[in-house]
C-alpha cells in the first residue's frame, strides 16, 4: 500500500517525538540514580572537637575549667569594693561569707564573657529568719560595678520559706521566676550549673543582643534560655549598660541570718 507523503511525514514525527521522550526518561532515570543521596554526603569530619577530660564526678572540674575555689585559698578572688585580697573565711575545704562590717561582696580577679559555671552552696542547718532575711546571698553572673551592680542568680533558703517568687532561690532576681523549686533542706549542699550568654553592645553603647541564662538547680532545669531585660535591680526597672567582660561576684547580703557557705566553684569559658 502506498501512503501519501503527508502521512509518512506525520508518522515520522510521532516516532521522533516518542524517541525524544524515551531518551529524556532514560536520562532522567540515570540522573536520579547518579544523584541518589548517600550517608557520606552528610558526614562532616573536620574540624575535630577538642578532647576534654571530664572530672571524676559531676562536681569536679573538667580538664579545661578554670578553678575559682579549690578549697584551699582565695587566690582567684578580691573584694568588690576596692579589689584588695578577699577576706571571706576558708576552712575545711569550704568558703563561708564574712558578714563583718566593711568586708562585703567578693568577685573574681578574672573577667569573663560567655561561660559554663558550676557552684555549690549550703544554707546553715540552724538557719534563722524568714522571707528575704533567711540565708540570702547571690551569684552575680556579671559584676558590672560596686555593690550589687550586675546580673544576679538568687541564693536563699527556699526549702520552706515564703517570699516573692521572683526573689526565691533559683530566680533571676526580680526578673525570672524559677520553673520549679528543687531546694534541699538547710544543712545539705546544693548546686547550680549555669550557662551564661553575655549581652553584646554596639560601638555607641546600644544593646545588640540581650543576655540569656540557662540554669540547673540540683540537676533540675529552672531557667530555660531566659532572656534578661537588663541588670537585676532591687528597686525600679531593669536596664542595660554597656560592658565587655566582667567578673563573677558572690554576695555578702546584709540580712542578719547566719552566713552561707560555698565549695567546688569552677568555670569553662565558651566561644
Provide a descriptive summary of the structure in words.
By secondary structure, the protein is mostly beta strands. The protein has two domains: 37 residues; 204 residues, Jelly Rolls, CATH 2.60.120.560. Helix content is 11%, strand content 28%. It has one helix and 15 strands; from the N terminus they run αβββββββββββββββ. Strands 1, 3, 4, 6, 9, 12, 13 and 15 form an eight-stranded antiparallel beta sheet that branches. Strands 2-5-14-7-8 form a five-stranded antiparallel beta sheet, with no helix packed on it. β3 and β4 form a beta hairpin. The longest helix is centred in the first third of the chain and has 30 residues. About 2% of the residues have low confidence.
Secondary-structure map with pairings?
Blueprint (H helix, E strand, L loop, with lengths): L4 H30 L31 E4 L7 E3 L9 E3 L2 E3 L9 E3 L6 E8 L14 E7 L6 E6 L33 E9 L2 E2 L5 E3 L2 E6 L2 E8 L21 E2 L10 E9 L2
Antiparallel strand pairs: 1-15, 2-5, 3-4, 4-15, 5-14, 6-9, 6-15, 7-8, 7-14, 9-12, 10-11, 12-13
Amino acid at each position: 500500500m502506498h501512503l501519501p507523503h503527508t502521512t509518512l511525514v506525520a508518522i515520522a514525527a510521532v516516532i521522533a517525538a516518542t524517541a525524544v521522550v524515551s531518551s529524556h526518561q532514560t536520562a532522567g532515570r540515570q540522573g536520579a540514580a547518579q544523584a541518589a543521596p548517600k550517608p557520606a554526603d552528610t558526614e562532616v569530619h573536620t574540624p575535630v572537637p577538642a578532647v576534654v577530660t571530664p572530672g571524676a564526678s559531676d562536681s569536679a572540674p573538667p580538664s579545661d575549667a578554670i578553678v575559682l575555689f579549690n578549697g584551699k585559698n582565695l587566690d582567684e578572688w578580691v573584694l568588690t569594693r576596692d579589689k584588695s585580697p578577699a577576706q571571706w573565711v576558708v576552712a575545711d575545704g569550704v568558703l563561708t561569707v564574712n558578714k563583718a562590717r566593711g568586708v562585703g561582696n567578693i568577685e573574681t580577679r578574672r573577667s569573663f564573657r560567655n561561660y559554663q559555671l558550676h557552684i555549690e552552696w549550703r544554707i546553715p542547718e540552724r538557719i534563722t529568719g524568714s522571707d528575704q532575711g533567711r540565708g540570702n546571698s547571690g551569684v552575680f553572673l556579671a559584676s558590672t560595678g560596686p555593690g550589687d551592680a550586675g546580673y544576679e542568680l538568687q541564693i536563699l533558703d527556699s526549702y520552706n520559706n515564703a517570699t516573692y517568687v521572683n526573689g526565691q532561690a533559683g530566680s533571676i532576681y526580680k526578673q525570672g521566676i524559677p520553673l520549679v523549686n528543687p531546694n534541699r533542706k538547710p544543712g545539705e549542699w546544693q548546686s547550680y550549673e549555669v550557662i551564661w550568654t553575655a549581652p553584646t553592645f554596639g560601638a555607641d553603647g546600644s544593646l545588640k543582643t540581650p543576655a540569656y541564662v540557662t540554669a540547673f538547680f540540683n540537676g533540675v532545669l529552672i531557667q530555660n534560655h531566659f532572656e534578661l531585660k537588663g541588670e537585676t535591680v532591687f528597686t525600679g526597672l531593669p536596664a542595660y549598660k554597656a560592658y565587655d567582660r566582667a567578673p563573677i561576684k558572690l554576695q555578702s547580703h546584709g540580712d542578719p541570718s547566719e552566713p552561707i557557705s560555698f565549695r567546688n566553684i569552677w568555670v569553662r569559658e565558651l566561644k
